[in-house]
Amino acid sequence: MITLWYDGSFAGLLTCIFEMYEHRLKDVSIFQKQKETNALFGDTLDVITDITKANRVWNGLQKRLSRQGCKNVVWNYLSELEGFENALLAFSRYVFDATENIETNFGNPAVLQVAQTAKKVGREKHRMEAFVRFQQLKDGLYYAAIRPDYNVLPLILPHFKSRYADQHWLIYDLQRGYGIKYDAGKETVEEVNISVSTDDELIPNTAILAEGELYYQDMWKDYFHKTGIPERRNMKLHLQHVPRRYWKYLTEKL
Amino acid sequence: MNICTNKCTNAVPLYGMNWERVKEKLGILADAAKYDVSCSSSGSKRDNKGKGLGDTTGMGICHSYTEDGRCISLLKILLTNVCIYDCAYCISRKSNDVKRAGFTVQEVVDLTISFYRRNYIEGLFLSSGIFKDVDYTMERLVRIAKKLRLEHNFNGYIHLKAIPGASDELIKEAGLYADRLSVNIELPSEQSLQKLAPEKRMADIYKPMSVLNNSILEHNGTKALIKSTPKFAPAGQSTQMVVGATPETDNDILHKANALYKSYHLKRVYYSGFVPVSDDARLPVTTPQVSFLREHRLYQADWLMRFYKFSVNEIVDKAHPLLATDIDPKLQWALRNLHLFPIDINRAAYDMIIRVPGIGIQSALKIVEARRFQKLGWEQLRKIGLAESRAKYFITCNDARYNHIGLQPHVIYQQITSNASSKFKTYHSPQLSLF
Q: Exposure string (b/e) for B213-242, b if CB count within 10 Å is 16 or more?
């Protein structure tokens, strides 16, 4: 059993897969370096991310998988779920061993797991496209703080860019400490990092909100309650659709 | 009465307006619109060209969910709840003692855009009570959609009501700006309509449906030749009927729905389980749970028709006019047709696999993909996501575990229902003659 450590980047993960083939390693598991605990047995190897090696693996995957299949690999990476590296490793091994595209062989545990993880990430992406709640600030910026289960900012970016092409907006991922900011004038998106001591500092206080913002929030909250039918109240179903962990960031649930 | 006259329609921007008053109106007019069940924002594609506001991607997004679990996708409001009609099942009927209000065109436009910019909604669902006359009301609805599209470059989703009795010209104009139009059929039969909504006639309801259907077909024909043809109601039309307020059977209702799908190419028929909104003597006394359960089974049957390739006669007929409440319509069909089972999951056609109780579209698609690589057994089928507790009576697979096969329908029924728990148990109708 040999443990490969990588730096947490996608290219780093692909480099690990390259090294596995390069050194003909059989029994391998991959862990991100800072997350790794000391209680590991067996050999370990520090893998230095190498773009050329990563590209060779990525090209190989692209050759053997459909666009959807490649997308699933990236989405598994963005899931950040514990052990996703080893799931992708098992999947890639199967991909490279097979003589045809096996991405729809759902009878195979590795294939099914990658497909199911991608589905979870897709669901979270869709959820965030729905659950982002912008608040307009005094300077005109539409700002939203979110805490998604998976790292979906890169996935929701195109949606928000094309939808809100004429307004300045910023979506900040509190969990991962970075945000994406769109400038309507320049039509560019940039990554932003705001250093704060607590997350509460990233929730705007009323003093910095634009005129009218609180009225719209108030009307939206009111609308949310008025559009429900009390005779049909079904909180179990409600919670299934809007799990409690998202409430803190939803205007209508505050 | 608080209807705005022409004087206050256009010029006033919302800033500087009386927020409290707008909020109060929103409360009244959202409350009055909530019984319209449609919330769909899918089926239309509008790109955001040239940096306007919004786009519609075809997928539809539920931005939130009410505490009754329904999707909130659109700002669903009435333009006004003032109405000259007196339909017994409707909260806004003339004789009902409710607070009345009306939005100005500008207020609706501003609310839609302000909510949209904050990512609260996918767009606007606008309906209205009939004030003054039908054309006057319809013209206002169209004017709002037009203003959003042309003046505000708004590419979000717009669902408008096409009001029966409105002129063909207005209905057609509505199609130029709206993604979806809907005419509510209200009740499943002419007799019921006469009884509960004496001012309405089925013929008036079918007319705008027909105008829309013809315009959509004509548009699609032109579009095939000329790409630049402007959009016309790209998400099609839908309708809604109240069920449980009148004596029609599920057989009547589903055949009506089927006819609507066939004749007018409707995208959706919505069923609204009757909630008592008045003590009008023409209305039945019902427990809401009974009507919600019935509504649920009707939707399941509707799905069988639209996605599972069932014909309506396979689901209900004169001999089986009511859907069972304790088992779903697909299982009901399967138990009546046990001679078609078991099927071999590794060989059967997709169209047959989707007919197996406990297997949905997604699992069926996965199964036909996966079996190209290997013969599937229970372990794999379970992981793919089929409901073994129901499917096991109807399929064989690569595992030799066939002891569920060959049972009598009533035995299968008993095994399945005794293992299931339902919060609706107390409301289930007595056992129907299923088999």
A: bebbeebeeeeeeeeeeebbbbbbbbbbbb
ipTM of the complex as predicted? 0.94
Q: What is the pLDDT of residues B32-53, one digit of tens each?
A: 999 888 778 888 888 888 778 9
pLDDT tens readout for residues A88-142: 999 999 999 999 999 999 999 999 999 999 999 999 999 999 999 999 999 999 9
Dihedral of the alpha carbons of A81, A83, A88, A91, in degrees to the nearest 10: -120
> What is the DSSP-derived secondary structure letter of residue A169?
E
Nearest CA in chain B to A168: B117
Rounding to the nearest 10 degrees, give the CA dihedral for residues A148, A150, A156, A160. 20
- The residue of chain A with its CA nearest to that of B152 is A166
B 116-135 → A contacts, CB under 8 A: 117-120
Residue A87 to chain B, least CA–CA distance (Å): 16
CB B137 within 8 A of CB B84: no
For residue B154, what pLDDT band results from cuts at 50, 70 and 90? Answer: very high
Please report, as a single letter, which amino acid is at residue A124: E
Dihedral-angle region of residue A177 (phi above 0 means left; psi in -120 to 50 means alpha; beta otherwise) = left
Residue B59 — pLDDT band, cuts 50, 70, 90? confident
CA–CA separation, B295 and B302 (whole Å): 10
User: Which ranges of B372-428 does DSSP label H, i.e. alpha helix?
Assistant: 378-384, 388-391, 409-419
pLDDT number for residue B419? 77
For B309, the token pair is 């390739």
Dist. CA B375–CA B380, nearest whole Å: 10
pLDDT at A189: 94
Sign of CA dihedral B276, B281, B286, B291: negative
Nearest to B26 among A126, A211, A219 (CB): A219
Which single residue is written with the structure tokens 């990430």?
A121
Tens of pLDDT along A70-100? Answer: 999 999 999 999 999 999 999 999 999 999 9
**Chain B: nearest CA to A167, how far in angstroms?**
8
The residue ranges of DSSP E strands in B319-379, in sequence order, are 343-344
Report chain B residues whose CB lies below 8 A from the CB of A104: 366, 369-370, 372-373
Segment (H or E) for B140? helix B134-146
Q: What is the model's pTM?
A: 0.91
CA distances from B229 to B45, B58, B220, B431 (A): 14, 19, 9, 55
Do A173 and A151 meet the contact criterion of CB atoms below 8 Å apart? yes
Q: How does the average pLDDT of chain B come out, rounded?
A: 89
Asked if residue A96 lies in contact with residue A60, where contact means CB atoms within 8 angstroms, the answer is yes
Compute φ and ψ for B61, nearest 5 degrees.
Answer: -135, 130
Cβ within 8 Å of residue A153, ≥6 positions away = A171, A173, A176, A178, A179, A180
What percent helix, strand, coil does chain B show, rounded to 5? 40, 10, 50
Distance CA(A160)–CA(A249), nearest Å, equals: 17
Task: Please name the member of A108, A126, A223 whose beta carbon is closest to the beta carbon of B30.
Answer: A223
Name residue A142's beta-bridge partners: A136, A169
Share of chain B above pLDDT 70, in %: 93
Nearest to B147 by CA among B176, B127, B122: B176
The DSSP letter of residue B270 is E
